[in-house]
Specification:
The protein is of the alpha+beta class. It has one domain (4-85): RelE-like (YaeB-like fold). Helix content is 27%, strand content 31%. It is built from two helices and five strands; from the N terminus they run βααββββ. The chain is globular. The termini are far apart.
């Protein structure tokens, strides 16, 4: 059984702002499918700052073959989609003691 994708309102706002074309939308849908069922965070994913009014850090993942990034948070059952952007997100520095 896969995880449930949860669309946070900021995700919809960012998707409208980006306005991806048909090719980018197909690539994005394929990547969202991988988020539902693949290992998380994935090998190329990194923690990044959210750029919309939401404060905090989320995991960032590049969408292959197009210039899009998805920012998401994970829980046991859900993948919360927070943002999609055309710019590589700013990496969050890992916390150190």
């Amino acid at each position: 059984m896969g995880r449930i994708l949860q669309l946070i309102p900021t995700y919809g706002l960012s998707l409208k702002r980006v306005g991806p074309g048909p090719r980018s939308r197909r690539a994005l849908r394929a990547e969202l499918s991988r988020l539902e069922s693949g290992p998380l965070p994935g090998p190329g994913d990194f923690e990044a700052f959210l750029s919309l009014p939401a404060v905090g850090v989320a995991w960032a993942r590049a969408v292959p073959d197009v210039e899009l990034w998805v920012l998401y948070r994970i829980s046991e059952l859900h993948v919360s989609l927070w943002e999609v952007t055309e710019q590589e997100p700013m990496r969050a520095e890992p916390l150190t003691d």
